[in-house]
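[scheduler] slot 2 assigned
[scheduler] job type: sequence-to-structure, two independent chains
[scheduler] chain ordering preserved from manifest
[runner] begin chain α
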Amino acid sequence: MKKIKSKISIVLIFLLIGSLSFPSNTCALEPKIADILITNDVENVLLYARLLNGFKPKMEMGVLAGIPSTFTMWIEVYEQRSAMWDKKITRKEIKRTIKYDNLKKTFIVSTNKQEPEIFQDFESAQKAMSDFNGMIAVPMSSLKKGRNYYAMIKIKMDKVRLPLQMEYVFIFVSMWDFETSWYRQNFTY
């Protein structure tokens, strides 16, 4: 009896060590922000960024079922100071929502109360949701020449709220929640 218990415990220990030593596939699919670029036009500092791995398969199924989903991007701009804490210049919140119209068979992507864009296929709508191009980070008038600044960027998938507590029926909706880490991009004016 003792031999059987010791063999079982040895097998369990090897299984535990084996499972911890091999990285899971979910680590590779964590959402992240890539291709961050900060530039300017005449009046504003502009941010370009791309969200990678933002659409999980269950989230895609939910969107195709007509459940709207929203990405929220936060942009914080700081002035670097050596003697004191860095000074926060501004904080912006950009909300982008995708919704599928089952009757028209179109995807609607809207950003912060702007005119929504309409797409015929899901891939184009996903690209529009994931690409944050030309987002105004801060007006140039708020910056001083010759100083160093940095932008902190983060994207979060907002929790989906369904009417009549339907999120208890559609369990997969709770698996949509994600949040990227803060990403820092330095720039000089």
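[runner] end chain α
[runner] begin chain β
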Amino acid sequence: MRLYDTARRAVVAFEPGPVVTMYTCGITPYDAAHMGHAATYLTYDVVQRRLRDLGHQTRCVRNVTDVDDDILRKARQLGVHYLDLAAEEMARFDANMDALGLLGSYSEPRATSAIPDILGFIGRVLDAGHAYQAAGAVYFDVGSFPGFGQVSHLARAEMVALAAERGGRPDDPAKRDPLDFVLWQPSAPDEPAWESRWGPGRPGWHVECSSLAMRELGPTIDLHGGGTDLIFPHHECEAAQSRAATGQPFVRHWLHVAMVCLDGEKMSKSLGNLVFVSDLLKEWEPGAVRLAVLAQHYRTSWETILGGIPGDLFADNTKKWSGDHSASDVEDTHGILVTNRPIARENPAIVDVAPTALTHFGQIPPTHYAGKTLFSLP
């Protein structure tokens, strides 16, 4: 298998051992799953199924960020406990992903379950000389780590701009450098707090994933990623702090999935321009939603429409899919299901995808669209 590696900026061989460790950043459960989530997790589902077809065991961990600025802000607005909000949204998320036919996660750890691990992790980074205390918080010192930037390859000005846009607070006066990022922070009066040797507080976002990934999978992961919006600052910071804590590479291969857009803008909770998976499933068969998402090249941003389906896919194919098929309409090419538009064939990073990757639970049943058979593979 050959996959594009974000850090190396090239399609390279992916050659893991018999057991493949994978970590994909999960949701912050303060709202429902949207099409961007579906695109990311379905891409990892295809990769995982293909690896299993090739004889590997896979251990794919997807975390739950159940304590951070966003969920605490939303819980405050709703007047509910943040863990109650998380439980409700995770139930909805799991139901949506089950409907789309995702393989179950090897584990789905919550950030709040890992506070002892996080405290130990921060202690190791401090002891290694890569962090400092200031204003009741602990910050990672990017100036102490020459490799900072090797995942994203961004210029410093771009990093500062993205940090400001994505919650990195480069204007924090307690920081030595605007790009330094928080490992531990004091909690506001109405926020959860845990005791630590640096005072009561809560973890920063980036340190949660590093700690959970290492606890579940060990110091070095074969494949890690998420949406491209996580490359910086989240994954850049993860890579730096993890190497600082262990002295070992954190990730062998970075795989990121491009953004899904609506009206020209990245679909995101913060912008509110969301098409929810639960709403799609009220109108479309789950198999049709899965197929529509997988028809998009995973490294190319694509535009959906208010109905939630890719604007250039269903409009072209609905008539063919809902009627009789000829050999030119549907074919099986090297295990890649093809309608009149390739699903994965043009993708240099996911090649020779087995039919099981495009169907539910490893089976190859007929898939239906609006009550009529879409395709059936022998």
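[runner] end chain β
[qc] chain β: The first strand starts at residue 2 and ends at 5.
[scheduler] slot 2 released
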